[in-house]
């Protein structure tokens, strides 16, 4: 069974670029875990039903990484990343 490919959305790329280097390393580790096991994230309900979220800690703060999975083409789309504070509110506004 081969691994999934990874595609960054524009929103994710902008957010990732603004992260501190230490946090970016932790995001990269979270992405590696997602690629190995895409169903590991928590599936959301309601407006964000297609979204999965993985939580991780970096620099003493809780961060969330939102992504979607396309099984037919074996791709993981990285949708957004950021601190827990207002994560879902900002995501719903632009999703």
What percentage of the residues does DSSP assign to strands (E)?
A: 25-35%
How are strands sequenced across the largest beta sheet?
1-5-4-3-2
N-to-C order of helices and strands? EHHEEEEH
- Number-wise, the strands total 5
**Number of helical segments?**
3
Round the mean pLDDT to the nearest integer and report it: 93
Helix percentage: 25-40%
Low-confidence stretches: none
Question: CA-to-CA gap between the ends?
Answer: 31 Å
Task: Describe the SSE topology.
Elements: E1 5-8, H1 10-18, H2 21-36, E2 42-43, E3 52-58, E4 61-70, E5 75-83, H3 87-94
Parallel strand pairs: 1-5
Antiparallel strand pairs: 2-3, 3-4, 4-5
């Amino acid at each position: 069974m081969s691994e999934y490919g990874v595609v960054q959305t524009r929103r994710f790329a902008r957010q990732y670029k603004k992260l501190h280097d230490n946090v970016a390393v932790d995001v990269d580790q979270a992405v590696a875990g997602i690629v190995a096991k895409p169903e590991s994230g928590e599936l959301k309900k309601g407006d964000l039903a297609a979204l999965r979220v993985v939580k991780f800690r970096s620099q003493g703060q809780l961060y969330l990484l939102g992504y979607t999975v396309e099984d037919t083409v074996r791709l993981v789309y990285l949708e957004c990343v950021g601190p827990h504070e207002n994560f879902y509110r900002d995501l719903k506004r632009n999703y």
